[in-house]
Write a structure and sequence with these properties.
Spore Coat Polysaccharide Biosynthesis Protein SpsA, Chain A, 7-stranded mixed sheet, 12 helices, 9 strands
């Protein structure tokens, strides 16, 4: 039982249905798809016991499943829109893991060392949920979450708002019963953007991959961008978590319609 509590399952959510940059996880840089690049980096983690790519049953995501077979990483397919249920159903396939690390496929430069540090922070403080982005200090694109299996299962049972189902963590944020922690960076690097939401982001990521080794950490990326301000400025105008604005708008419509019933 104690061993189960300590094992970490990394669920990496990815799909091809992005509205701002369709198919972004399969865009190629450094001779491979961004999703493969991210998985290769995650395999450098010393704290993750298993990686599973969680995509949806939508037919177009068969390309993701095909890539997973090619690179030898597990793939789970679940709901397209109810990402919380996708995570829940995926966790049921792997009952031997007591904690879930959540990552998203738009972060190909996620730093395995930062992932491990976030997990260690979670373990040492006996948290129910830890994020390194509750109060953003790390570069956007290094976002890492970890939560107890039981927390995911309770959220899946109780969460009802559209944002709860689509974003996995929204119910956990609101629930006061969970012990939550934020793992902060040594200094504020939150203005640096290492994620892929739009074409400008991909131009920056492609440049960084071309000028880096797959084992390089986030400080190397910051150094490269600092030396090339023209590249760094390409995507700095993009708002962090801009996609959530649409999700919260759906919450308001949902609650308004519910009052009418």
């Amino acid at each position: 039982m104690e061993k189960l509590k300590t094992k970490k399952l990394c669920i990496l959510q990815a799909r091809l249905g992005s509205t701002r940059l369709p198919g972004k996880v399969l865009l190629r840089a450094g001779g491979m798809a961004l999703l493969e690049y991210q998985v290769r980096r995650l395999r450098l983690s010393k704290k993750i016991d298993k990686i599973v790519v969680a995509t949806s049953v939508d037919r177009k995501n068969s390309l993701i499943e095909k890539l997973c077979r090619k690179i030898g990483v597990a793939c789970f397919r679940g709901s397209e829109d109810d990402v919380l249920d996708r995570f829940y159903q995926c966790s049921l396939k792997y009952p031997q893991y007591g904690s879930i690390v959540r990552l998203t496929g738009d972060c190909p430069l996620v730093d395995p060392a930062v992932v491990d540090q976030t997990i260690t922070f979670f373990e040492k403080n006996n948290y129910d949920y830890v994020s390194n982005a509750l109060k953003p200090t790390w570069p956007d694109g290094l976002d890492t979450e970890i939560f107890k299996r039981s927390v995911l299962h309770e959220a899946a049972r109780r969460a009802g708002l559209p944002s709860d189902r689509e974003e996995v963590n929204e119910y956990i944020f609101r629930a006061k019963k969970f012990k939550k922690g934020n793992f902060a960076a040594p200094q504020d690097w939150s203005h640096i953007r290492l994620t892929v939401d739009e074409a400008a982001d991909f131009a920056v990521i492609k440049f960084l991959i071309k000028n880096s080794k797959i084992t390089d950490g986030y400080l190397h990326y910051i150094s490269v961008l600092t030396k090339h301000p023209r590249i760094m400025l390409k995507n700095m105008h993009i708002e962090r978590n801009a996609g959530m604005i649409k999700v919260w708008a759906r919450d308001k419509i949902f609650l308004k319609n519910k009052k009418k019933l």
